[in-house]
Hints:
The chain is an alpha/beta fold. The protein has helices at residues 2-17, 86-89, 94-97, 117-125, 139-149, 161-169, 178-193, 213-225, 241-255, 274-287, 319-325, 329-339, 349-353, 376-383, 387-398, 411-418, 446-461, 467-474, 476-482; strands spanning 21-30, 39-46, 49-54, 61-66, 71-74, 76-78, 101-106, 154-157, 159-160, 198-202, 229-233, 259-261, 292-296, 301-305, 358-362, 403-407, 423-425, 498-501, 522-527, 530-534, 537-538. The N and C termini lie far apart (55 Å).
Amino acid sequence: MIKKILLVLPLFILVIGCSQYDFVIRDGMIYDGSGTKAYKGDVAIKNAKIVEVSKSIGGKGKHEIDASGLAVSPGFINMLSWATTSLIADGRSLSDLKQGVTLEVFGEGWSMGPLNKKMRDQQLAEMTEFKYEIDWTTLGEYLESLENRGISTNVASFVGATTLRIHEIGFDDRPPTEGELENMKSLVRRAMEDGALGVGSSLIYAPAFYSSTEELIELCKIASEYDGMYISHMRSESNRFLESLDELITISEKANIPAEIYHLKAGGTPNHYKMDLAIEKINQARERGLKITTDMYLYVAGATGLNAHMPPWVQEGGYDKWAERLKDPEIRKRVKQEMITDTDDWENLGFLAGSEGVLFSGFKNPDLRKHIGKTLKEVADELGKHYADVAMDFVIQDGSRVDVVYFLMSEENIKKQIQLPYMSFGSDAGSLAPEGDFLNYNPHPRAYGNFSRLLGKYVRDEKVISLESAIHKLTGLSAEKLKIKERGYLKKGYYADVVIFNPETIQDHATFAKPHQLSTGVHHVLVNGVQVLKDSEHTGATPGKVVRGPGYKK
Length: 554
């Protein structure tokens, strides 16, 4: 008997000494994503999942992370990401990862699928320094292509209403035929079964501008069958802000679908007062049982192109026809007059910002990059031209819509919006790195600072909301809106997307003058149980996966 015990004892000791978990995060302040009060505790992770969250975990981990003095939370969800191509260029997702983002959500009007041959050829033709293979046709195939290339964050997407329209109608200003609309609905169905989160629109831009409310309702009815969501850059965020909100509420009601407003804002000083009225409308709709929600970025300026300073009619048919029209003296005269005139007929962001409030941020043409960081007024004064002529000339010379920043919003409204119980956050930007081709343009600083700005400036410094509330908005609330499973909370059985950061030091550093500056204060990030950020340095790991919506069918 003694001999048998002696033989078994080494094996018993070996088993006891083995690591029970892949990771144990110890002694951190646990913010579980629910918004409830934080507590000091541990998190255990094994095989991509959280297996225990408690005040004290006894087992050992292959890797142990000391989180003393740090916050431990679920990974943050970027509700509006434009990392669609930046992740192809650099799968590290560094600018977002350094802020704690573990899920990038795409699809503001344009999605990377479905594509037809003409769309694929056009996309290939528009590539400049950064070229990549388009090895997909459907939206689902695109997301899988990203995962196969190797990415550090998870990805998900809405199917874009603009993309659907271009797929069937092109850039024409007309309603779809019955057959075209049925094809668009079939494309929505395929996207939803491939895991799309719903339908996304961006209605200030051509050709999305040409879509009717009825067309959008029909597309959303299909997404609703799959428990999806409608999410929209509304038709106006300025002069017709309230009327556009009515349209979104109508779509939600008639299609029986939850609806979210992308980057809620009241653009232009004369429209700032409308935010209170908009919040009242949203609250009334919610009281009637409609699921209307919002997201935002945390700056008084937005970023888009000079297409948002020119009437949609001149852009019909796509960029080539737009640029050709701008070479016609009579058309230029008409466009110029509309650019310098306030209107309710389309979203004239340049007029609302004023030429001194339009900042150049990116050009395809290297010869024009000397103007990056200057305002439209400054360049116009340098060239001795009217600012409208400069804008039209640059669209022609650059071969693009030209990237610009518009200063439009109020700080008072930003603070008011942050406090809304249904508010989430999105960068409305790519996920970049301060190196290589990314340095050829000046992105909006939100690409490097949106989430850390929330936690530093608005939570710690100005105490607009509590840290528990902010993390809930960044995690659990957003996951619930999107109806994605097993993410957004620190719970047993959930995927181990975890952020460990210092609430006292987390800080954005990017500015409009110097945007390529990474945020600081995030120490460690795990994605699907794999550490991608260790002691604030990227590990090189690319464990990111496709996150699919509730309609997904294998």
